[in-house]
Amino acid sequence: MKRLSLSGSVVFIAVLVIVLGTAAGAWMSLGLIKDALEPAQEEKAAIVADSTDRLVTHLLKQGVPLERFGRMDQLLASRLTGHPDLDFLAIYLPESDRLLYQATGLEDLPQNRPASPSDPLVQSLADAQGRFALYRYPIVQDGQTLAEVWVGFDPGFMARVFEEIGYDIATILVVTLLLAMELLMFITTYHIKTPMAGIHFMLDRIAEKDLREVVHFPGKDELSNLGNKVATISSDMTTWLRSTAEGKSYQLPKKHPKKVGLARLSFVRPPLFLVIFSESMSLAFFPAYVNELYEPIPGLAPSMVIGLPISVFMLVWALSLPVAGQWSDSVGRKKAFMVGALLTAVGLFLTAWCDNLWQLLAVRSITAVGYGVVFITAQGYVTDNTTPENRTRGMAMFLSGFFSGSLCGAAIGGILSDRIGFPATFILSAALSLASAMFVMQFFEAKVKDPSAPAPAILSFKDFTTLLTDKYFLLITFLSAIPAKLLLTGFLYYTGPVYLNELGANQSSVGRVLMAYGLAIVLISPLSAWLGDRLKNKSAFIIFGGGLSALALFAVYMIPGIYGMFTGVLLLGVAHAIGVSPQLSLLTEKVKLRNGLTLGKTIGIFRLTERIGNIAGPLVAATLISVLGFQSSFLWLSTGAAMSLILLVILYLMFRSMDQRKLQEA
Q1: Which helix (H) or strand (E) holds 137?
Q2: Is residue 267 situated within a structural domain?
Q3: Where are the beta strands (DSSP E) in 614-663?
Q4: Host domain of residue 583
Q5: Of 212, 339, 442, 504, whose CA is between 20 and 30 Å from 372?
Q6: C-alpha–C-alpha distance, residues 187 and 167, integer Å
Q7: Is there a contact between 282 and 491 (Cβ–Cβ < 8 Å)?
Q8: Domain holding 593: CATH number?
């Protein structure tokens, strides 16, 4: 306990130092950015004024009088186009104290028409200074000031830019914290906990006079070197003991001690985190990227076409899971994870170079296969290295790594896509997935197949028919699991980005909003799992989570806009953190294993069946949006979630009552 406490303290102190250092650096950066914004604005004003000055001077040299420039207002207005910060451009005559030509980008003022003394856009210097951040530059000819160029900026633009940068930095701080936790937990486990556990294992075996196994330490640190020396001493002892009478009291190997590895659950978290991170980087902008490649498909509304790649991805992912699981069992976790990560990297890289929708569907299918192999292999790794007693904790670790990667990827992907564009973001995400394959190659050990181990059970059609006639399987799968997955892909992955883009939010803002879902999962899931084990009432958690899901969609309906969407995404994250995890536990408790059905087959079929929600989500949401619009779609989705929950409660109470009567009759 002391050793674990010390390790935990080291991690806590290291993370605290990293976060405080990053926060201090961010604060200083904000100050530097703020100091640089005003000079940058002034420099832009000077460039615009100089360009206008050259135009006026050229016309004057052509003999055109200053007051006879034709369509000058329209020309000035055209110079405001594409500059959201630039709101006013005018030519002022100091001699007569009037604005000769002017144009404004403000939406509440008339556009593109000549100004006149009776109907000016801006009436005076005081008026202009009150509306804009104003810069004035003289137009000089032959040493005489003929006029002035007035350049006006939106006075709130810099404040909004500064606020946006502040939000991005806060987002990066959260991601930094999670990345630091992931990295430090792996370092302490690989270089401290695992070698110490291996040394203790061998010393305990020596004390028990069992020298049949020694531990192999792949690391190059001091503890690993010490462990390998202990293993060498143990091997030398076996040779010496064979030649002595004392050796009869020891358990010795026939030839050489068997070398065993020390696999740890935390070894799978970093590569899993990287793959999920890389794939999730496109969550914030993927519908916008699809919209750039949009091609009409007869019979499908534009919103359905945009949602099609997400549904195809989910379909291929779902279909790949059973095959990938069997293949991962046969070739080993190391090889399977590396192949899955490489396929994901190839798919993400090719996504950056797609020219049309059909190419996108093809390369997203490649990505889905790789993603499916990684997903099922990581779950298999957890199963291999846990026992029934600690498997729940192992799966919680798996889910924590999954949603941490999703949270960080969505947030960082949104920020990057705004700054470097969609293709470059996909290429970077492919590099991260490739890095995960290299990590596995370096730190995973190939598992030696045990010839005496039973062959893995293969799913059959009979297994599906057996489960699909079980009332509790149908109830939990079709009224809880599938609706939850439908809302995840339909509302969060598809509708969220599309709706926020419609509201004018940039990709950074979309990423921050979607980040709320993963943050809720990461923070609340451990507490929810602990309470579920203590209260032992899984159905109550599923019902409560279902109610929150309906409330999340209703909140977006009642509060239109970005704040409503943020509220809905956050509530959905809380709902899934509470209600999704107990689904499998309740299922394994209630479903009867018969006709050769095993627990592993039940879990596999459940995971495959619930993907119906993943596939249908974007198509259902797109159909509702094309027919009803966004706000009514939120209401219908909320109503559907509520009706599904009500039916779940009624049938569950009915089934439980039927079971109790059967027990009483028996």
Answers
A1: strand 133-141
A2: no
A3: none
A4: 457-666
A5: 442
A6: 30
A7: no
A8: 1.20.1250.20
Alpha carbons 398 and 395: distance in angstroms, whole number: 5
Single-letter residue type at 503: L
Residues 6 or more apart from 353 whose CB is under 8 A from it?
423
DSSP code for 257: P
DSSP label of 268:
G
Q: Are 291 and 308 in contact (CB under 8 A)?
A: no
Would residue 232 count as lying in a domain? no
Query: Among 548, 530, 541, which residue's Cα sits nearest to residue 578?
Result: 541
The tens digit of pLDDT for each residue in 526-585 reads 777 777 667 778 888 899 999 999 999 999 999 999 999 999 999 999 999 888 878 877
Task: Report the chain's C-alpha Rg in angstroms.
Answer: 32
Q: How many residues does the chain have?
A: 666
Q: How far is CA 384 from the centre of its chain?
A: 27
- In the listed set 126, 155, 184, which residue is the last one of a domain according to the structure? 155
Number of domains in the chain: 2
Q: Pairing state of beta strands 213-215 and 258-260? A: parallel
What's the chain's average pLDDT? Answer: 82
Ranges of residues in the chain whose predicted pLDDT is under 70: 1-11, 106-120, 219, 242-243, 245-248, 250, 260-265, 387-396, 445-459, 532-533, 600, 666
- Rounded CA gap, 414 and 417, in Å? 5
How far CA 189 is from CA of 183, 269, 589, in Å, comes to: 10, 11, 34
Percentage of the chain with pLDDT > 70?
89
Q: What is the DSSP string of 399-425?
A: HHHHHHHHHHHHHHHHHHHHHH-HHHH
Residue 35 has which token pair? 């100091």
User: CA end-to-end span of the chain, whole Å?
Assistant: 49
C-alpha to C-alpha distance for 625 and 499, rounded to whole angstroms:
10
- Hey, what amino acid is at 280? S
Residue 88 backbone phi and psi in degrees, to 5: -155, 135
Phi, then psi, of 537 in degrees rounded to 5: -135, 75
The verdict on residue 109 lying in a domain is yes
Phi/psi of residue 217, nearest 5 degrees: -110, 110
Query: Alpha-carbon distance 587 to 591, whole Å?
Result: 6
Q: What's the CATH code of the domain at 32?
A: 3.30.450
Neighbours of 469 (CB within 10 A): 10
CA dihedral 18, 22, 25, 29 (to 10 degrees): 170
CB 542 within 8 A of CB 480: yes
What pairing do the DSSP bridges indicate for beta strands 213-215 and 144-153?
A: unpaired
Chosen domain end from 125, 155, 185:
155
Q: Quote the DSSP letter at residue 493.
A: I
> How far is the CA of 597 from the CAs of 8, 207, 272, 458, 473, in angstroms?
42, 44, 30, 10, 13
Q: Is residue 170 part of a domain?
A: no
